[in-house]
Amino acid sequence: MDKQQVIFTDLGILDYKTAWDYQENLLQENVTIKSQARNTSPAVLPIDLPTKHHLLLCEHTPVYTLGKSGNVANVLLSDSEMKQNGIEFFRTNRGGDITFHGLQQLVGYPIMDLEKFYTDIGKYLRNIEEAVILTIADYGIVGERSKGETGVWINPDMTGKERKICAIGVRCSRWVTMHGFALNVNTDLSYFNNIIPCGIQNKQVTSIEKELGRKIDLNELKEKFKLNFAKVFEVEFI
Q1: What pLDDT does 201 receive?
Q2: Which of 58, 166, 172, 198 is catalytic?
Q3: Where do the H-state alpha helices sit in 102-186?
Q4: What is the pLDDT of residues 49-98, one digit of tens each?
Q5: Could you tell me the sign of the dihedral formed by the alpha carbons of 195, 200, 206, 207, in that order?
Q6: Is the dihedral of CA 154, 157, 162, 168 positive or negative?
Q7: CB distance 103 to 204 below 8 Å
Q8: I need a labelling partner for 95 at 20 to 30 A (CA). Which of 109, 111, 156, 166 fits?
Q9: Residue 198 annotated as catalytic
Q10: Residue 116: enclosing H or E segment and its boundaries?
Q11: Do residues 100 and 191 make contact, with C-beta atoms less than 8 angstroms apart?
Q12: Radius of gyration of the chain (CA)
């Protein structure tokens, strides 16, 4: 069986709203295809629809984003303080709570039609985690899952030493996904001091740079992530 093809786009550095709008457009294109097929050819199988998969990678200018069920009290700065510090803020339609996006952080947005894979959001989230776990393993870092907490962690079961290296929050409409993950690479972690990351008290945030004590090449990491994403999801990039 041929592998599903995923269109890869490196968006470089851009603001959050531009990336969000781009994702929404890609999602709506797929949702429209599925809606029209349901109305005109209800017998057609999801696997046969011309929906398209995308993987967008980027870095964002400094921004805090709050998930749809998040608590704004987890933002510890006022609007004026964020403005003074050049940080944007958005309430989003993804899952999860508050997080930070900034330079030298790898942000990934898979726009996937899950009906061509499996209709299981939990499995999808675990697969994103797995792609990240494999990627940081390429740098000698052991990433793990923390029970009941989406994302990738280091030492999640060692009280006082738990630290999150990758946050994940997604949206799904008609089994088409958007939003995604944020992996701290050479990220300025001081921005996390102004929020309660993911709404989780008393747990640290870390980065690949902090764990290794050196900066790494973000472009190199992107290539490693692409390979691991393709392996986990059993896809090929075009």
Answers
A1: 76
A2: 198
A3: 121-137
A4: 999 999 999 999 999 999 998 999 999 999 999 999 999 999 999 998 99
A5: negative
A6: positive
A7: no
A8: 156
A9: yes
A10: none
A11: yes
A12: 18
Q: Which amino acid is at 194?
A: N
Please, how many CA atoms are within 13 Å of residue 107, restricted to the half-sphere of its CB?
Answer: 27
Distance CA 18, CA 227 (A): 26
Q: For the chain, which residues make up each domain, given as ranges? A: 4-237
Q: What angle do CA 209, 167, 51 make, to 5 degrees?
A: 120
Residues contacting residue 215 through CB under 8 Å, at least 6 positions apart: 186, 209
What is residue 2's DSSP assignment?
Answer: P
pTM summary value: 0.96
Residue with the larger pLDDT of the pair 80 and 201:
80
142, 208 Cβ separation under 8 angstroms: no
* Contacts by 170-173, CB closer than 8 A, 24 or more apart: 170/94, 170/95, 170/121, 170/124, 170/125, 170/128, 171/93, 171/94, 171/95, 172/114, 172/121, 172/124, 173/27, 173/31
CATH architecture for residues 4-237: 2-Layer Sandwich (3.30)
Contacts of 192 (CB under 8 A, 6+ apart): 100, 205
Length of the chain, in residues? 238
- Residues 27, 111 contacting (CB under 8 angstroms): yes
How many alpha carbons lie under 13 Å from residue 102 in its C-beta half-sphere?
A: 18
